[in-house]
Amino acid sequence: xxxxxxxxxxxxxxxxxxxxxxxxxxxxxxxxxxxxxxxxxxxxxxxxxxxxxxxxxxxxxxxxxxxxxxxxxxxxxxxxxxxxx
Length: 85
What we know:
- It is built from one helix and five strands.
- By secondary structure, it is mostly beta strands.
- A hairpin with a 4-residue loop joins β1 and β2 (21-29).
């Protein structure tokens, strides 16, 4: 699975502006980027043009830097749909 030019690198913490979710870039498949919640949970696909780097506040809210997550799972429940051009 090769990373796309201009897409964020694997391991980058980003915000999917279509679903307003924070996720870690797990990989690149076709035109999309696979993201997973920082604390674990179900992966979802996102358009790389709709991603931005997470702010410090968003990183903290997502649990970045915590030694132990407060919970495990996808609080949004599954694959984000919509926000397609």
